[in-house]
Amino acid sequence: MRAQDLQDVDYSTIKPGETVDLKIKLQRATNLKDDVDHELLVLNNYKSQSFQDSKLSADLESHIAELTALQNKLNSQIDQITSQLDKIPSQVRDLFDRLSRECSSYIKSVKSTGQWLYRGADEGNPDVYVGKSWLDRRPSDSHPQAQKLFDQILAMHGLVALRGNSIFATSDQFHASEFGKVYVIFPVDHHSHFTYTTSRDLAIETPEDLLSERKSQEWLSQLRKWMREYEKQKGWDPSNSPVRKVNLLSLLDLNDEWTRHGLDLAELPERFRNMNLIDLVDIQEFMQEYQPSSRNLGKAIEHMVEVYVSGIYYAVDAEKYDTFLETYFGVPVAKWY
Fold first, then answer.
1. Is residue 121 packed enough to be buried (19+ CB in 10 Å), middle (13-18) or exposed (0-12)?
2. Distance CA 22, CA 143 (A)
3. Handedness of CA 256, 257, 261, 264 (dihedral sign)
4. Which residue did the predictor score with more confidence, 25 or 89?
5. Quick one: which of 286, 212, 285 has its CA closest to 251?
6. Confidence of residue 75 (pLDDT cuts 50, 70, 90)
7. What are the residue boundaries of the structural domains of the chain, listed by start?
8. Is the pLDDT of residue 33 over 60?
9. 240-250: string of b/e by CB count within 10 Å (b at 16+)?
């Protein structure tokens, strides 16, 4: 993974699937949220212990003044650290200023709904990065052919962000956490597209899940009719015909089934040998069920559905930067940890 300073980022040089570390490293002096939480815990524990010691040592006047001075010092340190929690370091402010300019459409939707889009990613990714979605994403839970068919239908309706060329995001931060380290994402204006459906977490186990039962049965009926004619043409006894052994439970396995029983694939008509799955989809039913759209991102955020984001986007560690994000943008980062 390469790294760049924020001012040197050039979207045209980012390759599909690449993430670029923006080298925003918050040190202890910047009061990083993790460090602050840790120090507050240590100081409060010390404070609590000191009170216990004070009670135990109440009869020792020589220790009372020392413990009181220690308590005052600890209280002062706690107040100082607490007051700095919402102070945004200059490097982070520069980042947020850029996001405000270049991701304004997305931020408008975020502010109107009061919710962010999150994604879960590999723990090895940097805290802040800019990335580009894949061109041909390999599905982890869906059948590859099913994803290809689903995307074919989306593209038919003019949608650019598809399952195969996008990262997946959601306003459900707990769901995002199931996939790794949680980031708040910022799709870049004019360099990204989004699509959403009615699904919160779509997994298509087989392409046949998308096919119309009516159209599939019509296709099978045509195939069986041809097979009976083919059987007669060959002069085979129906009781011992290799055609009768072909399993038609899965349309996708027809070619393998045909050759497995010693039949010549070249004799299988083109319309059966290389069927176009989309011809077996009822497009109207598909559109009614999934309602794919790119018109209203705010609606997708409110309904916590899965959002496909293609193109260039920024990602900011949600846990480490939650206070800074809320202070700058006025939108709270949901807690899942």
1. buried
2. 35
3. negative
4. 89
5. 212
6. confident
7. 6-28+87-203+287-329, 32-83, 212-280
8. no
9. ebebeebeeee
Tokens of 331: 């939108």
CA–CA dist 120, 164 (Å, integer): 17
Of 29-33, 87-91, 315-319, the poorest mean pLDDT is in: 29-33
Closest alpha carbon to 255 in 271, 232, 241: 271
Instruction: Give CA–CA dist 28/189, Å, rounded.
Output: 33
Give 169: exposed, middle or buried? Use CB within 10 Å, 0-12, 13-18, 19+.
buried
pLDDT of residue 219: 93
CB 310 within 8 A of CB 171: no
Residue 323 one-letter amino acid: T
Higher pLDDT, 79 or 205: 205
Q: Which of 191, 201, 208, 169 is nearest to 307 (CA)?
A: 169
CB 121 within 8 A of CB 1: no
**Strand 118-121, strand 307-317: pairing:** unpaired
Q: What is the mean pLDDT of residues 172-191?
A: 96
Joined tokens for residue 259: 């050759």
- Asked if 131 and 195 touch (Cβ cutoff 8 Å), the reply is no
Burial class for 336, CB neighbours closer than 10 Å (0-12, 13-18, 19+): middle
User: Rounded to 5 degrees, what are φ and ψ at 225?
Assistant: -60, -45
Residue 109 parent element (H or E): helix 104-113
3-state secondary structure at position 203: coil
CB 255 within 8 A of CB 273: yes
pLDDT surpasses 70 at 42: no
Nearest to 67 by CA among 55, 78, 79: 55
Q: Which residues of 214-231 are buried (b: 16+ CB within 10 A; e: fewer)?
A: eeeeebeeebeeebeebb
H/E stretch holding 155 reads helix 144-156
Give the pLDDT score at 48.
63
